[in-house]
Amino acid sequence: MVYDRAQDNSELTPFVPQGIAVAEPLPFQITDTTIPPGVSLTPGFPADRLCTIPSGRCLQDDFSFSTSTDAHFMDATLDAVTLNSTYEITPAFELTGIFGWRQSEEAVFIDFDGTDITAFNVVREQDYKQYSAEVRVASNFDGPFNFVAGGFYFNSEYELRQAIKLDVALVAPLPALGIAFVNGAGDEDFHESETIAIFGQGDYEIFDSLKLTVGLRATWDERSIFTSFFDPPAAIAPTFQVTDGIPPGRVLDEQGGASENWFEFTPKVALTWQATDNLLTYASFTRGYNAGGFSARAGTVADVTTPFDPETITAYEVGFKSDFADNRVRLNGAFFFNVFNDKQEESIQTAPPPVFTSTTVRNVAGAEIWGIELKPTVLVTEELRLNATFGYLNAEYTDHPGFAAPSQYIVTAGGPFTSLVAADFSGLELRRTPTITFSVTPTYEKQVGPGLFTASSTVRYFGEQETEFFNSPRGRLPSQTFVDAFVSYQFDSLNDTTAEIRLFGKNLTDIQRGGGFVNSIVDFRGVSAPRTWGVELQAIF
Predict the structure, then answer these.
(1) Domain coordinates in residue numbering, the chain
(2) How far apart (Å, rounded) are the C-alpha atoms in residues 392 and 115?
(3) Three-class SS state of 169
(4) Could you give the CA distance from residue 296 to residue 190 in angstroms, rounded to a whole number?
(5) What are the two backbone dihedrals, phi and then psi, of residue 508, each rounded to the nearest 5 degrees?
(6) What is the DSSP secondary structure assignment for residue 497, as one 8-state letter?
(7) Distance between CA 270 and CA 253 in Å, rounded?
(8) Peptide bond preceding 473 in cis form (omega within 30 of 0)
(9) Could you tell me whether strands 514-519 and 498-506 are parallel, antiparallel, or unpaired per DSSP bridges?
């Protein structure tokens, strides 16, 4: 049995205001054929109102610069229990049972605008609990066939309560900031998930060197949600701050609930060939899925209670694992090709009057991702080992029709134009898919005195990648190289106790890296952690 408890009372990574001062073109294509004569639309982000309004805040070029003056921290606790038991029924059969339970509570106070004024703050209270159980039987036959089979159950409950403090000038034609605020509006959501699955996998040795693996899994998913949207309390003080918590007496605007269930059958077939003592090759076909559900962060009850279906992936892979040079060199490699259908992406939906849009999750895209991975390991000496990785990735949408909202296009002539317009997003690049990645990790280990001395460093390279859905240049991360390192000394075990002291450093070159750009009521982005170093002491007994 393992019991874990964690408590987190920490400042959040600050958000950096972007304040788009001028319209910013975007690379998707508008396909709407109903645009009135004389009206010209260009895909793009219009200027950010937080910048253009009098006394506003404009573009920040320094990713390390944030003047957050409002609450921006987390108060969270987590408790978890894991039970794992194995029983030998007979020499040929083994029974394993795994049970897990966890519960967390957190309150998060967020200063989204990251400026020296109060513009957009949120308090978010979240309670979560889950438990799961798995029972499986595995065989240990002498013959050519072995199998594992079992069942799985999972249940979770998630409750969210949210309230905002928003300067009205950001969403209404007020002349200046700081005059009026929305104090306490927000939503409450209760979400429940249940999953039941049965599975089995068998391995059959066709020849001594050739093995066939066939796996099957049948999964039943059920999701339900109940959501409520609230207006601010009629008598709330204008000085309300998010640190006051969810205000009592909020006025119910609308509420509703829904439930949905799905069944998925996911097979796997693989062939493994031990060509020589030092070369293993394989080929596999797998079908998997990302579960369906509800988008609790959508802006209307109708969008929250409209389910999205599972996203499926069909994966093909061939690869090899090899050792040579008297087992001092190891090289593993793989080629993979993945096809996504009913891909889940953020989708813009029309909301009731007044003119409004809601961003929710829908099955709106198809995509293909293929790539190559290589992982060499070289034992340079008995004490020095060199590990490396290399990856090449090609990712693209195959189909992605959708709608762009007024915040995603620019009226270049004949405006105003405030409706949703049809668009083709298939030319956009998928987020977080750098073409080239690689890493090199030399590790030196040597017995020194009564313990083991270790020194290691890792150099990691990431190619250019997009982090913002519409491929905004502000969300584009350039190619970057990071360096981490540590030295440690582990004392030999004494009375079943092992102690270790470790000095570590992360991001030693102190690269300031944007953590992704968000275009919303205000434009902001996160930042990566700066150079970090520390000392760890660990004892295992």
Answers:
(1) 1-18+60-251, 440-541
(2) 39
(3) helix
(4) 9
(5) -65, -25
(6) B
(7) 54
(8) no
(9) unpaired
18-68 pLDDT, tens digit per residue, is 888 888 999 999 999 988 888 899 999 988 888 888 888 887 666 667 888
DSSP, collapsed to helix, strand or coil, labels residue 50 as helix
Rounded to whole angstroms, the Cα distance separating 299 from 259 reads 18
Alpha-carbon distance of 100 to 80, in angstroms, equals 7
β-bridge pairing 514-519 and 210-231: unpaired
Higher pLDDT, 150 or 175: 150
Four-point Cα dihedral 321, 323, 328, 331, nearest 10: -30
Distance CA 393, CA 373 (A): 9
145 forms beta bridges with 204
pLDDT tens-digit readout, 391-412: 999 999 999 999 999 889 999 8
Q: Name the one residue in this structure whose structure tokens are 């570590």.
A: 504
**Amino acid sitting at position 192:** E
Q: Which residues pair with 435 in a beta bridge?
A: none
Pairs from 341-345 (Cβ < 8 Å, separation ≥ 24): 341/311, 341/312, 341/313, 341/314, 341/366, 342/309, 342/310, 342/311, 342/312, 342/366, 343/311, 343/367, 343/400, 344/290, 344/308, 344/311, 345/400, 345/402, 345/469
| Residue 349 and residue 358 in contact, taking contact as beta carbons nearer than 8 Å | yes
SS3 242: helix
Q: Compute φ and ψ for 407, nearest 5 degrees.
A: -80, 0
**DSSP strands (E only) in 250-355:** 251-276, 279-290, 311-324, 329-351
Spatial CA neighbour of 148 closest among 220, 216, 218: 216
DSSP state for residue 174 in the 8-state scheme: -
Helix (H/G/I), strand (E/B), else coil: 301: helix
Report whether 381 contacts 327 (CB < 8 A).
Answer: no
Distance CA(343)–CA(368), nearest Å, equals: 10
Three-class SS of residue 52?
helix
Beta bridge partners of 465: 477
DSSP 278: T
Could you tell me whether strands 465-466 and 356-379 are parallel, antiparallel, or unpaired per DSSP bridges? unpaired
- How far apart, in Å, are the Cα atoms of 390 and each of 42, 90, 153, 327, 438? 39, 45, 37, 21, 4
| Residue 137 confidence (pLDDT) | 98
Render the burial of 444-454: b for 16+ CB within 10 Å, e for the rest: ebeeeeebbeb
How far, in Å, CA of 212 to CA of 413, rounded?
A: 64
Asked if 394 contacts 370 with a C-beta cutoff of 8 angstroms, the reply is yes
Instruction: Compute the distance between CA of residue 46 and CA of residue 173 in angstroms, rounded to an integer.
Output: 16
